[in-house]
Amino acid sequence: xxxxxxxxxxxxxxxxxxxxxxxxxxxxxxxxxxxxxxxxxxxxxxxxxxxxxxxxxxxxxxxxxxxxxxxxxxxxxxxxxxxxxxxxxxxxxxxxxxxxxxxxxxxxxxxxxxxxxxxxxxxxxxxxxxxxxxxxxxxxxxxxxxxxxxxxxxxxxxxxxxxxxxxxxxxxxxxxxxxxxxxxxxxxxxxxxxxxxxxxxxxxxxxxxxxxxxxxxxxxxxxxxxxxxxxxxxxxxxxxxxxxxxxxxxxxxxxxxxxxxxxxxxxxxxxxxxxxxxxxxxxxxxxxxxxxxxxxxxxxxxxxxxxxxxxxxxxxxxxxxxxxxxxxxxxxxxxxxxxxxxxxxxxxxxxxx
Length: 353
What we know:
Structural class: alpha/beta
Shape: elongated
Largest sheet: 6 strands, parallel
Number of helices: 12
Order of helices and strands: HHHHEHEHEHEEHEHEHEHEEHEE
């Protein structure tokens, strides 16, 4: 069967090719009757507009690139899904590529997206070098979804993020209200602007409240269940005084739960546990993790809106920085303790595997 072209639609409707093009692009000068006729013919014949040809005329493809660092991460996967949903609502398609600043292929990804004539890019990253990467591709409208604390760079970026410093403060205040005075901050990652702010908010507020904090550093480049498990095993291999663990991500917190189960440490009876992100897994019946929630749908919506506003804008040199507030989600992994009671050393039973 021969492919139907825009010329065929124009001939069937008895109008010019220009009129068909304008009708498909909702041009106001086309009458409702003409537009209805053209759309009906397109539906009946299976005609689809040639996006590449349209882009050569309008300089738009209605496609945006989205680059998360790790699509297997539950937070990144959920975020990407919402991005696609909100982009579609604005008549945009999404081209998804996974990569992170520091990877040898990240510049190749940008070159690829530019070659595909995307209208703009959303880069989901916590790396402190993300700002420099976007500045190197400043000709392409782009939005950083995440934090940037690089000196002098953050003010020259369009970015959307959750206020991680406030999220860290909220976690410290919540554990303090429950009576915890000696706590572990588990999973801090050097080189991550997001983790730097999250840790700063937690540790400064904890210090103000008179809490003692031990920080366990994740040497890897991502927060995973395995990294949380390994750090928790290190913690549990010796007697410890802490009564609570604040994991820098829900994925790391799930690793802590697994290690605690292996070592015979009951959560929350012997150790309170708190995460960050509120991924879907956190709400499962056998997990019920108390966490600081990032508003993923709102974060995706704000990111898409800012990027499309930039694409539509003719002004340059103006930058927008948007913060969303996190929220506390209380479930079953934290419990109140008596702040004045003497703390007993926990001596875990390690099963070496």
